[in-house]
Design goal:
Layout: H1 3-17, E1 40-44, H2 63-72, E2 97-101, E3 107-112, E4 119-123, E5 140-146, E6 149-155, E7 175-184, E8 187-195, E9 204-212
Parallel strand pairs: 4-5
Antiparallel strand pairs: 1-2, 1-9, 2-3, 3-4, 5-6, 6-7, 7-8, 8-9
């Protein structure tokens, strides 16, 4: 981890746990077309943690998925993310990420600093999902606006990534719906609904938040370089 990350960790934790008074929170900026401007470098958000499950929802693993998860217990070194592979959705590596909106409003890109400098592309041009998508780490994402909220619908995931280092599994039936809302200039609400009838008995929603880092840029980070001793 870089000195920048280490030097800001304590401050970031404090900032995320102490809410600003409402009168101090500036409103989210907007683009010329009136849409919210999500651009910038963000930290946090996303991720898979049972503590972030929406109140009233529960995570119920199916028997085969429970067996698979149990087989991964204590085998952190086998986690694909530890081998510099993409994290998939909703997992996030502990590094910042940047959201970029195209000028024509047809695309949103999420650029990740961590692992392999991977990215997600979200199509807002009205296209539909392919009938038989090629399974990939980040799937096929289409999006639309519901008021000031960007809704992202994704299918076509492979089954290679883990939801977290604890080994939470998924299958190629995974379907996610994400809702991004910039509630003020510094805060991005990011809720993720997970539906996977191959691994979970019912859908559930994770409620997460990201924080704007206005002085940060994405840094070069080459995870694969000399990554030979994966220990915990």
């Amino acid at each position: 981890m870089t000195a920048r990350r280490l030097g800001t960790a304590a401050a970031l934790v404090a900032a995320l746990t102490v809410a600003l008074p409402a009168q101090q929170a500036k409103p989210a900026p907007r683009l010329p077309d009136g849409r919210p401007d999500f651009s910038g470098v963000w930290s946090g958000g996303g991720g898979f943690n049972p503590r972030n499950v929406k109140p009233g929802d529960t995570i119920e693993l199916l028997p085969a998925a429970k067996t698979l998860m149990d087989s991964r217990t204590g085998k952190w070194a086998e986690d694909p993310e530890a081998h510099c592979l993409p994290t998939g959705v909703p997992r996030m590596a502990p590094y910042p990420w940047r959201m970029v909106q195209s000028v024509d409003g047809k695309y949103v890109f999420i650029l990740f600093e961590g692992n392999i400098h991977s990215y997600r592309q979200i199509f807002l041009d009205g296209r539909t999902h392919p009938k038989d998508p090629d399974p990939t780490w980040y799937g096929h994402s289409t999006g639309w606006w519901e008021g000031d909220t960007l809704v992202v619908d994704t299918i076509g995931y492979n089954d290679k990534f883990w939801f977290s280092a604890a080994g939470w599994p998924h299958t190629t039936q995974l379907h996610t719906v994400e809702r991004f809302t910039r509630t003020d200039v510094n805060t991005l609400s990011w809720d993720i609904t997970i539906t996977d009838p191959g691994a979970y008995a019912k859908p559930f929603t994770l409620q997460t938040r990201a924080r704007l880092e206005p002085t940060w840029d994405l840094m070069e980070y080459i995870c694969q370089e000399n990554n030979t001793n994966i220990v915990r």
